[in-house]
Amino acid sequence: MALGERDKFSGQMTTGHEWNGIKELNTPVPRAIWVFLLVATLFAVTWTVLNPSWPGINGYFRGLLGVDQRTQIAQIVQQAQMDRATWTSRIDAEDFAAIQADEPLMNIVRETGQALFGDNCAACHGTNALGNPGFPNLVHAPLMWGDDPEIVAETISVGINGSSPDTRFAQMLAFGRDQMLDTADINTVVTYVQALSQPDVAAATAPDILAAGATIFADNCAACHGETAKGMTDTGAPDLTDEFWTYGSDRAAIRQSVYAGRTGVMPSWEGRLSPTEIKLLALYVLDLRAGTP
């Protein structure tokens, strides 16, 4: 085909290329595209000149504006620390009762405590603090060493059977494995303990079995769990008459506890968490308990 031929439909000149009867038009690039490319190029050049951009042998081009994101982040962190200090200083200085009576401050405790609990405690006690098998319910169940705020904070700090030299110690003796009780006595006392919290078991058990179980309990268990089996905060022994069972309330679980004993571990959080964070966690847990009907 001839060069410079004009297409009769579009009015554009052709390039001289033809494929299967289709002729290629010599259509110029739209002006809007050139404008866009020019603006984009100018923007890119301006950006690389004003901001940190091109790498070098011993560093990078820092830009005419002197933008430094590391400095910005450091300033943001410093400001956050200053803002945090305005209320953490109050957490450190004020007693538990004063903090619990200050609703705006408790709102901060709830927000911060939830994050602390999720990061450090939820793996064992659950995100809702309702406990998991082998780990107690912190919301509804009685706390084994009591729910006094100072006591709760101390328990978090030193742990239970933990690594702190001041840790709390708690151990359920292995009455069967260590041959302190024979099989018959274990079965009898297990029935008695079940009956303490399960009325259907109590109703279905002969009075003489319950009486024998009460005697075995008094001789072997009451020193830790109390004469009424309500637990003792001095020894960290749980209440056996309520519905809360760390290791399960079925007969097999209770028998396993009596036969082989239990030795739960709560980490010692001192050294891992600051005193402020430990106090926040204590306040958070107590607030969860206070919100429970």
Overview of this structure, please?
The chain has twelve helices and two strands, in the order E-E-H-H-H-H-H-H-H-H-H-H-H-H. The protein has 293 residues and is mainly α. Among the domains are: 71-167 and 266-290, Cytochrome Bc1 Complex, Chain D, domain 2 (Orthogonal Bundle); 183-260, Orthogonal Bundle (Cytochrome Bc1 Complex, Chain D, domain 2). Strands 1-2 form a two-stranded antiparallel ribbon. The protein is elongated and about 120 Å long. The model has no long low-confidence stretch (mean pLDDT 91).
Residue share in β-strands: under 5%
Q: What structural class should be given to the helix and strand makeup?
A: mainly alpha
User: What top-tier CATH class of the domain at 71-167 and 266-290 fits best?
Assistant: Mainly Alpha
Q: What best-fitting shape do the alpha-carbon axes yield?
A: elongated
Fraction of residues in helix: 40-55%
The CATH topology of the domain at 71-167 and 266-290, please?
A: Cytochrome Bc1 Complex, Chain D, domain 2
| Unreliably modeled segments | none
User: What is the typical, i.e. mean, pLDDT?
Assistant: 91
The CATH architecture of the domain at 71-167 and 266-290 is Orthogonal Bundle
Q: Write down how many β-strands occur, each being a DSSP E stretch of 2 or more residues.
A: 2
CATH superfamily heading of the domain at 71-167 and 266-290: Cytochrome c-like domain
How many helices? The count is 12
